[in-house]
Amino acid sequence: xxxxxxxxxxxxxxxxxxPSKQEQPSLNGLCGFLTKAEIEAVLGRALDxxxxxxxxxxxxxxxxxYSAGLDTSGNAYFAYVVVPDQAAFEKNKSDSETxxxxxxxxxxxxxxDAEQLWVREGNHFVMVAxxxxxxLAGAKKLALLVLSRLK
Length: 151
Prior knowledge:
alpha+beta; Protein Transport Mog1p, Chain A; 5 helices; 7 strands; 31% strand
């Protein structure tokens, strides 16, 4: 009887419904990979609204957008983080600049509204964009945080 109970317990533990660390996160899970404090530290400003869920087909994935408002000159402070697929990661590589010091492979690409940092680590991909002014160090920091939490 004890053996049967142990088997049931093992089966129930394996079916807890919690995704494995290797799975792509849910959209809410992705927004949860970065804290308000982490985003604000990189932007150098307080967020002025809650993160907004985004689904960017042209970026190949779902993610979160963070807004920290405008400065006195009307420049927008924002960041967005997307978890793309491999095809999206490969799409802009030929028109990009290789970046070291983050992931197994990374490049930056001049996107339509901000410089984008695309990073691959193993079979995980993340794209981080920070505006109004390019912030490669901040993008690297956020990418590393997200990648560490995807595992």
